[in-house]
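Hi V.,

Quick status before I head out on leave. The structure for the redesign project is tokenized and pasted below; the design run finished overnight.
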């Protein structure tokens, strides 16, 4: 699930993995996922009247099993086997706990939750609640200071950038990512952390929304309290657009209060007339971006 929205008895979501046979798993980017569904399962594509966009969606009656990220943490916290990714996950959980993190607020998603990981997999952690996530970021900052081996090395940054397939060049991508403090390197395994807010941040949205085309705006961030949430929200000082919603991790935590930004993405208008820019209409967010401009960029975040 990538949103807390349901519509017409369907869960709005994103196709990321598919079993090709009993042992092999295929991983999709947005374009190949859509093409795959069009050819094989078109009923899993849904035009959302709420969001004015075509999305993947699973009918509620088709759901066979629900996997919970917290269960993966419980399964791996004391892992003592030889499998590389599971071993790294268990070590991360224990180390975070030793630094004061609340492991009850941790979950693991992605391939590890599904049991699809291989030797080159990343580990995707979620942290439930903004206060708990802020604590984890503080711990990561400390780890980076105490042990340089906990920081991503050059090959890991290059691989992460290639996977994101975003509109930033490598140097620009690294510049932003290194001040987010939401990544760790454990024995050559990349660990990512994202925040799941305790309550919906979209209660103020009056559905349905209507798209009004792609725009480029320049504005100042005036509230960064939700920039690591899902979706990330940037409240900005702009004459027409009040917020930027970000649905891709690439641009979460990208700019902080007081910084001036340039952003490109489609603008939507809700039933109250509120105008919001959306970045991350696909995982890769091709043609969409959020950058800090001028001299405001700081590594003090």
């Amino acid at each position: 699930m990538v949103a807390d929205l349901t519509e017409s008895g369907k869960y709005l979501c994103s196709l990321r993995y598919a079993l090709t046979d009993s042992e092999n798993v295929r991983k999709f980017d947005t374009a190949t996922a859509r093409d795959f569904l069009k050819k094989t399962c078109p009923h899993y594509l849904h035009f959302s009247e709420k969001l004015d966009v075509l999305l993947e969606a699973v009918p509620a009656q088709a759901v066979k099993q629900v996997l919970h990220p917290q269960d993966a943490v419980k399964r791996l916290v004391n892992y003592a086997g030889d499998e590389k990714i599971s071993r790294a996950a268990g070590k991360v959980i224990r180390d975070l706990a030793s630094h004061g993190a609340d492991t009850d607020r941790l979950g693991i998603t992605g391939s590890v939750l599904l049991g699809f990981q291989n030797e080159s997999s990343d580990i995707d952690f979620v942290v439930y609640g903004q206060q708990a996530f802020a604590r984890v970021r503080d711990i990561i900052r400390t780890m980076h200071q105490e042990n340089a081996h906990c920081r991503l090395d050059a090959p890991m940054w290059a691989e992460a950038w290639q996977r994101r397939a975003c509109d930033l060049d490598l140097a620009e991508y690294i510049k932003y990512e290194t001040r987010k403090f939401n990544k760790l390197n454990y024995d050559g395994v990349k660990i990512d952390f994202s925040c799941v807010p305790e309550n919906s941040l979209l209660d103020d949205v009056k559905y349905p929304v209507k798209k009004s085309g792609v725009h480029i705006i320049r504005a100042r961030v005036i509230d960064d309290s939700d920039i690591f949430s899902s979706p990330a929200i940037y409240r900005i000082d702009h004459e027409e657009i009040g917020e930027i919603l970000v649905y891709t991790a690439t641009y979460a935590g990208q700019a902080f209060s007081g910084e001036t930004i340039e952003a490109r993405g489609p603008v939507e208008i809700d039933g109250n007339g509120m105008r919001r820019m959306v970045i991350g209409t696909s995982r890769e967010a091709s043609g969409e971006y959020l950058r800090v401009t001028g001299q405001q960029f700081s590594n003090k975040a």
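Above is the designed sequence. The mean pLDDT is 92.

G. will cover questions while I'm gone.

Best,
W.
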